[in-house]
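pls design
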């Protein structure tokens, strides 16, 4: 049965809250913390971990808790849960802390950003409810290749791409970079 985008995003949000709760349970009363730690040992990478060590270290990252919740829902990782639940373009963020070093042109409407792109070139990207036009160095900072031919295919416009397949390939590349860097996923 096909689910709507709203239902898929609600599912991901419930899973995100469950992961946050699991992380907090590690800091709860001993019996609750032990039960939470046992859930972490379901993960193949933590199968041999001592639950008491997990509690004592309390070094479990939110990403690990998200992986546990995803695993409990039949996915191998949080990234796989996101890929299966929400369209990929909704899972990637097109801004990172290192991009502050670049002079980006910011806009409140896509039309304004598209006009700036048409006259000055660059790469049009979204950020929350805004849009910005940036340079090749910022694209590299995102972990993407600014010379990838798919940028030309999408018209250098991430928001209204001309070629959906090229856009999907760029989304996959960005998502893979986010996973490899350990960036927080939506």
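designed seq:
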């Amino acid at each position: 049965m096909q689910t709507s985008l709203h239902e898929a995003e609600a599912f991901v949000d419930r899973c995100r809250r469950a992961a946050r709760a699991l992380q907090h349970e590690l800091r709860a009363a001993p019996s609750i913390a032990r039960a939470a730690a046992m859930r972490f040992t379901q993960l193949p990478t933590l199968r041999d971990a001592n639950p008491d060590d997990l509690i004592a270290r309390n070094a479990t990252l939110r990403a690990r808790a998200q992986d546990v919740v995803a695993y409990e829902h039949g996915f191998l990782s949080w990234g796989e849960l996101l890929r299966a639940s929400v369209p990929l373009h909704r899972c990637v963020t097109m801004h990172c802390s290192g991009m502050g070093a670049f002079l980006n042109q910011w806009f409140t409407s896509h039309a304004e950003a598209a006009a700036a792109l048409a006259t000055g070139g660059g790469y049009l990207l979204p950020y929350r409810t805004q849009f910005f036009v940036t340079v090749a160095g910022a694209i590299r900072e995102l972990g993407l290749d600014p010379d990838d031919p798919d940028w030309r295919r999408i018209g250098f416009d991430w928001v209204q791409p001309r070629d959906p397949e090229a856009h999907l390939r760029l989304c996959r590349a960005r998502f893979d970079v986010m996973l490899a860097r350990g960036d927080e996923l939506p």
